[in-house]
Amino acid sequence: MSTFIAAFVVLLLFFLLMSVGYIVKKKAVEGSCGGLGVLGIEKACDCDDPCDARKLRMAKDEARKEMLNQNRII
């Protein structure tokens, strides 16, 4: 039982360290190869004009990025 508890604590420690790194870097989570952005693909679908829901999501993302940049401490 103590081995299980030790393994669980180590796993939680790694998750904590990864989350602190994510918060400090303020970067989007990517795959190990960089994802679709490396291939020059900005979106997952092949549509020339995104749907209304995607446009709304993109506008919210841009507003959030702008707010984070304005309120950045460092």
Mean pLDDT: 81
- Quick one: overall form? elongated
Q: List the uncertain runs.
A: none
Count of runs of 4 or more consecutive helical residues: 2
Largest sheet: none
The level of helicity is 55-70%
Q: What is the CA–CA distance across the termini?
A: 44 Å
Strand content: under 5%
Please give the number of β-strands.
0
- Rg over CA atoms: 18 Å
Helix/strand/pairing category: mainly alpha
Instruction: Give the SSE order as H and E letters.
Output: HH
Detail the topology: elements first, then pairings.
Layout: H1 2-25, H2 52-70
Key descriptive features of the protein:
74 residues, 0% strand, single chain, 58% helix
Structure described in brief:
The chain is an all-alpha fold and 74 residues long. The model has no long low-confidence stretch (mean pLDDT 81).
